[in-house]
Specification:
The complex is a heterodimer. Chain A is an alpha/beta fold. Chain A contains 15 helices and 11 strands. Chain A is globular and about 70 Å long. The chains are: A alpha/beta, B alpha+beta. Bound molecules: zinc ion. Zinc ion (ZN) binds next to loops of chain B.
């Protein structure tokens, strides 16, 4: 069997026993990429030679020694492109390593491929990429989700063993759900954001996309921990997650937030998620109905705060120091106008304009400051829910992967794809998405488990127990 | 319609001060002036995608220290905000600054009469010793430096991201002289805390001025004009003198003052319109999400307190009271902590502290401008004063010793010996000289005894000549008088 089909945990064991070599994995992945990447288009950049050279030098005694990992194209890795799937970063080469990248490097990992995404992580389908669309490996006429669509499609499509993504409003979990893999958004502050090109600083988190929960825990262990370069990282000591899997959910109190089971959602998705809840109950967990009453405001709050922060974060792309610069500008203003209007795509422009508006004099009180207040209420919702339960169980997405092009003209409908994931970014909690079933037409359905702040161990234990008593993760996509 | 005396100016200052720190405000780059262009930069201060700021504790501590020195309220929790505007010297196109919750609020700067311009030091405005209220002090990052050539522009990012403190005054100032004294007095406080060198001519302290005029007695402010390009404290005074005159001239002619920013041209001695403020800039401030709020009540304030120096006003009072120096000397000493430290060491070993101040501030500074590196050890001054008091040398000899001390620094005692200057105070030796003088000048003796008391001077002159100037004049006087009246 091709090594491309194995889990990170299994490859790690075989590498450290010298049964296989890192180059074998890279070669098998390149073979898979050679046959299917032209359909899936998960990557924006692949440097085969560099990956093979790194594989030759890999030290298999290290925790991730010789394991190839794909990086979302918004993570700086020294000397590599980092386009954020935007024309404005044309020609930019990262002058430094993101902390997450440096930590993986230190653990012995090698990098194979930079994955496609919605431009600057703004989107839920990867259709906002300036470098081409990515197709869902389960149905090439459908979107892979987004914005980490390339990472999810690569992992699900056996084009990568594991990948890093970033999640600002669901950008790891929603594509993981739609592609049938495992996506973890850790608690805000768990993983350093240094080197992740910022979309919305108070919401962004880096996280792994993997085939299994165990693989997710392995990567989280390597990535987590305080970073002196990121003032918002948590100071607690490094942990090894899921070092002793219990395989049990006995006594767990699982909360079902009533606001997360909406009338309009896909009946197949709802059935699969309720089936998962039933499994927890059958295996000794207690189901508790809880309420997160401010959920209906979450999308509005998100699109105010995320765009406000983005309008400042993206101001630095001005054609002055790096990236795309307008040719023959008349003057400074012309340089700014043309570099930015030629360099950014329509969704990015829409959000910069929205964010600029909500911060403007005369509007900031009604929008930005009010949204901050409601964000506080959302956080309280979660705090009070977690006094009644240990984890929350919800659908990751209201529906399975939708057809390519269906929503590109309807941004508001597109924004609804993140309705179940956005609140956790606003509240800062960690959450995982893992497969919990398939539709009749063989599209994966995702289950979301949300934990209290820094409750990743709880999330991973429960997710692992659920995953190991099902075989959804073993299914192969057809594409 | 009215004479100029009926108008008064209302002036407020915004002062930017570069802080003395090891590293920049939000990254580990060295904070130092003079490196090769773009040699002190990193992804953070260049605003590279993905980089994040980390606050510099030293800069926060020094800002709190400044607040404490100026009597500000220190916020228990302060926050950083983003100030949004596009300009190529600002790499992120937003500046990390403080808006709603600055580190310091309130406080005041006391105007030191001796820091008024020389020609105003005796004026009523200097003697008033006014205190100018501050609105706030906040911390932010400086921008890069732009260079404009014929065809293109260049940017040196070495200064980008260095810590900058902004001190905003209330509109309490009324005259150009007061603005001058405000900047000088503020600078003294900053120097005393080791916060900044605050030299305006080196750009370490930069100042924007808001000025308007109104009839005396009117409560409402007139339309204010902002002045820029002020590169020295005296330049601020000149610019204000011109601008206040211009505004009064305009309103007296019935013209309206434009709300605008004007540029001071020091060569032309005039201000010129830079831009009118029809469209106020909307900076869209919002809390910087990359930085946690700064808690000052968990050690930062304590650390700043431990760095509190003796403030200029307290130091001046102590020097005047305990050492008997003049108010002017106290002000000069308080303005230069190195010199003051030198003086205090020099004065420590002697009761004649005021004399030592005279020596140091007049003769010493004339030849030794840098006390820190001077080979003249401060203890020498006490020693020299002691030699005079004890009568080892007289004041004429002291001048010689002093000149030698400056030329070839060594212990005054050693100099006295080397130059053979020790005063003769031995009564026997002096009596012998006096006897010789009486014997050799019978005419003067006669005159003196007949009531011409001045005649004793000829005898004294004889003694001094014979003793090569070493005779103790007081003793000679006593001995001669005794002998002549015998
Ligand atoms: Zn730097």
């Amino acid at each position: 069997m091709s090594l491309a089909h194995e889990t990170l945990a299994s490859l790690r064991r075989r590498l450290s026993s010298k049964e296989i070599h890192s180059r074998d994995i890279v070669k098998d992945l390149l073979t898979e990429i050679g046959t299917r990447e032209k359909t899936v288009h998960a990557f924006t950049h692949i440097d085969e030679k560099a990956a093979l050279a790194a594989a030759e030098k890999a030290d298999s005694s290290l925790p991730l020694g010789g394991i190839p990992i794909a990086l979302k194209d918004n993570l700086n890795a020294l000397g590599d492109p980092c386009t954020c799937s935007s024309k404005i970063l044309e020609g930019y080469k990262a002058p430094y390593d993101a902390t997450a990248v440096a930590r993986l490097r230190q653990a012995g990992a090698i990098f194979l491929g930079r994955t496609n995404m919605d431009e600057f992580a703004m989107g839920s389908s990867t259709e906002n990429s300036a470098l081409g669309i990515t197709r869902n490996p389960w149905d090439s006429t459908r979107i892979p989700g987004g914005s980490s669509g390339g990472s999810a499609a690569a992992v699900a499509g056996r084009l990568a063993i594991a990948a890093l993504g970033s999640d600002t409003g669901g950008s790891i979990r929603q594509p993981a759900a739609l592609c049938g893999c495992v996506g973890l958004k850790p608690t805000y502050g768990r993983i350093s954001r240094y080197g992740l090109v910022a979309f919305a600083s108070s919401l962004d988190q880096i996280g792994p996309l993997t085939r299994t929960v165990e693989d997710s825990a392995i990567l989280l262990s390597a990535l987590a921990g305080h970073d002196p370069r990121d003032n918002t990282t948590d100071l607690r000591k490094p942990e090894t997650f899921l070092s002793k899997p219990t395989g049990s959910v006995q006594g767990l109190r699982v909360g079902l937030p009533k606001e997360y089971f909406l009338p309009g959602m896909s009946p197949e998705a709802e059935a699969a998620v309720r089936g998962a809840a039933h499994w927890f109950e059958k295996n000794g967990a207690t189901l508790v109905e809880v309420s997160l009453p401010h959920t209906p405001a979450a999308i509005a709050v998100y699109y105010i705060l995320a765009t406000a922060e983005a309008s400042a974060n993206l101001a630095r792309f001005d054609g002055v120091r790096y990236g795309r610069r307008a040719v023959e500008p008349k003057d400074l203003l012309d340089l700014y106008h043309r570099s930015r209007s030629e360099g950014f795509g329509p969704e990015v422009k829409r959000r910069i304009i929205l964010g600029t508006f909500v911060l403007s004099q005369g509007y900031a009180d009604a929008y930005y400051r009010k949204a901050q207040k409601v964000r506080g209420l959302l956080r309280q919702d979660f705090e009070s829910a977690f006094t009644k339960c240990d984890l929350l169980l919800t659908p990751t997405s209201p529906e399975p992967a939708f057809p390519l092009g269906e929503r590109t003209q309807d941004p508001l409908k597109m924004y609804l794809a993140d309705v179940f994931t956005i609140s956790t970014n606003l509240a800062g909690n960690g959450a995982i998405s893992l497969p919990c079933g398939f539709t009749k037409s063989n599209l994966p359905i995702g289950l979301q488990l949300i934990g209290p702040h820094f409750g990743e161990e709880k999330i991973l234990q429960a997710a692992h127990a659920y995953e190991q008593s099902h075989d959804f993760w073993k299914r192969m996509p057809p594409v | 319609m009215s004479s100029p005396a009926k108008w008064e100016a209302v002036i407020g200052l915004e002062v930017h001060v570069q802080l003395h720190t090891q590293t920049k405000m939000f990254c580990g780059c060295i904070n130092q002036y003079g490196g090769a262009a773009n040699s002190q930069v990193c992804p953070v201060c260049l605003g590279m995608p993905g980089s994040l700021p980390v606050p510099n504790e030293e800069a926060i501590r020094k800002t709190i220290l400044t607040g404490l020195m100026l009597g500000c309220r220190i916020a228990p929790v302060a926050r950083f905000d983003r100030k949004n505007y596009f300009y190529p010297d600002m790499p992120k196109n937003y500046q990390i600054s403080q808006f709603e919750d600055p580190l310091c609020a309130g406080g005041a700067v006391g105007l030191d009469p001796f820091l008024f311009p020389k020609d105003l030091q005796e004026s009523d405005e200097a003697k008033a010793k006014r205190s100018i209220r501050l609105t706030r002090i906040h911390l932010e990052e400086d921008v890069a430096k732009s260079f404009h050539y014929e065809e293109r522009s260049g940017i040196d990012f070495n200064r980008a991201g260095t810590p900058l403190m902004e001190i905003v005054s209330e509109a309490d100032l009324r005259t150009p002289g007061e603005a001058f004294a405000f900047l000088g007095s503020l600078r003294q406080v900053l120097l005393s805390g080791g916060v900044s060198s605050a030299d305006m001519e080196k750009g370490q302290m930069r100042c924007d001025v808001n000025v308007s005029v109104r009839p005396v007695g009117q409560k409402e402010f007139g339309t204010k004009v902002e002045l820029k390009n002020l590169n020295s404290i005296s330049g601020v005074r000149r610019a204000l003198e011109y601008e206040i005159g211009r505004q009064i001239g305009a309103v007296e002619k019935g013209e309206a003052i434009q709300h605008e920013t004007r540029r001071w041209d020091d060569d032309a001695g005039a201000t010129f319109t830079m831009r009118t403020k029809e469209k106020a800039h909307d900076y869209r401030y919002f809390p910087e999400p990359d930085l946690l709020p700064v808690r000052t009540d968990q050690g930062l304030r304590k650390a700043a307190e431990s760095g509190l120096p003796e403030l200029p006003a307290a130091l001046q009072a102590r020097l005047m009271q305990e050492n008997g120096v003049t108010a002017y000397q106290a002000s000069v000493l308080a303005a230069d902590r190195v010199l003051c430290g030198y003086y205090e060491k020099a004065a420590a070993g002697t009761k004649h502290k005021a004399a030592v101040a005279n020596w140091i501030l007049n003769d010493f500074l004339a030849t030794q401008p840098d006390p820190a590196t001077s080979p003249v050890r401060p203890e020498f001054f006490g020693e020299l004063a002691g030699l005079v008091v004890e009568g080892v040398i007289n004041s004429a000899q002291a001048k010689k010793v002093f000149a030698e001390l400056m030329a070839n620094p060594a212990s005054p005692k050693a100099i006295v010996e080397k130059l053979g200057l020790a005063q003769i105070s031995d009564v026997g030796a002096l009596a012998a000289f006096c006897d010789e003088a009486i014997a050799a000048n019978p005419r003067s003796v006669e005159d003196y005894r007949s009531g011409k008391s001045n005649a004793i001077n000829a005898l004294k002159g004889f003694v001094m000549k014979k003793s090569q100037g070493k005779a103790n004049p007081t003793q000679v006087d006593e001995i001669l008088k005794a002998k002549l009246s015998a």
